[in-house]
Prior knowledge:
Distance between the termini: 64 Å
Strand content: 5-15%
Radius of gyration: 24 Å
Order of helices and strands: HHHHHHEHHEHEEHEEEHHEEHEEH
Oligomer: single chain
Helix content: 40-55%
Structural class: alpha/beta
Strand order of the largest sheet: 1-7-6-5-4-2-3
Bound molecules: pyridoxal-5'-phosphate
Amino acid sequence: MTQRQRMLEELKTKSIFNIAQKHAFKYLDELYEMDVFPSPENLSSLSNFKHPLSQSGTPATEVIEFLQQHGSQATTIHTGGRYYGFVNGSTIPVSLGVKWLTDVWDQNGGLYLTSPINAQIEDVCESWLIDILGLPETTKAGFVSGTSMANLCGMAAARQHLLQNLGWDVNQKGLNGAPRIRIVAHEQVHSCIKKTLALLGFGIENVEWVPSDDQGRIHVDEMPLLDASCLVLLQAGNVNTGAFDDFETVCNLADEAGAWVHIDGAFGLWAEACSSLKYLTKGLSKASSWAVDGHKTLNTPYDSGVILCKHPEALVRALQATGAYIEYTDQREPMLYTPEMSKRSRAMEMWAILKYLGKDGVDEMITGFNTLAIEMAEGLKNIGFDILNEVVFNQVLFKAESDEETNRILKYVQNSGKAWMGPSKWNGDAVIRISVCSWMTSSEDVKRTIAVFREALSKM
Ligand SMILES: *Cc1c(COP(=O)(O)O)cnc(C)c1O
């Protein structure tokens, strides 16, 4: 059989997909009781992958069986109830189902001509996002890989827009000799904002940093005077405390000055969709651009972020590509709003979750994260931990009596396999950081997590 015949056979019999499905279903059935982080023994299976590339290849079934045998035990259980590390959501079944189906469709989402259905879904998803997040009607959405990329797009659009207003075409002339852009940023911006400041040529040293208050919100009283050369960087959801900046006050100042406000709302922007939490995002719609993830609090599979921009012409100018072979139609052209050309039809999964949950379902899920985070904080406080933040959203920051004890307790819990969360630093102290952002997490999970901490304390 030739290679092509073999592949045709595999496509026809579906045997490969059946094997993958069998293993995937087994994993789904077992994941709730699996170690949340793999044990050293399970991690040791990873060494099996280190072999030289073979000359003659491997049968397809063996490739899948190999991955299953040596790889599945070395996964972290995001779609379980007790993974609280970083800010990592899990996956809602309907979005995973849509991903499987659309993976088979294998759409290149770059252009209308490469996938009309993807262009349609992006259009619909964009209008739903404008609705649920209360954004201006002129807002355009670019569907990117995550908030790092969305921040990059928003800040590139800002650079384009501000320099254009100052009479400088940055695409043609570059940054050498350009009028100066002033970057005014909250001192606790996410690390990917700093990366973007470096990538876009602004330079981290040139930032006018504005101090944070004790909750990690920008100190509005310490904002410098803004003007029409300013890009102001705020956040909806401080990565440690979950706190929200005062958008209303800062956006009003920026509006008067003609400055651009970009909000990094990777996980927090969704507070706007919750009736009891939207007080946190007051004034949000007055900004110029927003970055948000699907793969965190909305629980889409990974590879889902969105740049939302009120000045589509600036976004398009910053990202547009032209070429003799690129044919734009009068339909939506997804790649006008993203740095990539070829891309997965990733908006499908976000569309699926929004269609499935509706406004009430999104509100219920995300408000639920807040309720459970508050339960977690209360439980941890009751067994003696020092809770360091007001739990306004889904983040809980806490510590034991000393850095050493905090670190030892965290290691104990991480090694238990029963829950996983990471460390951070707050006011110079070693702290533990819990992020509640899986639809699977229940009060029972919170109780089980607190029980592991109680056990850890008793071993100290
Ligand atoms: C996670 C996060 C990012 C980065 O988003 P990715 O989707 O991981 O690229 C940026 N800002 C904040 C506040 C985040 O929590």
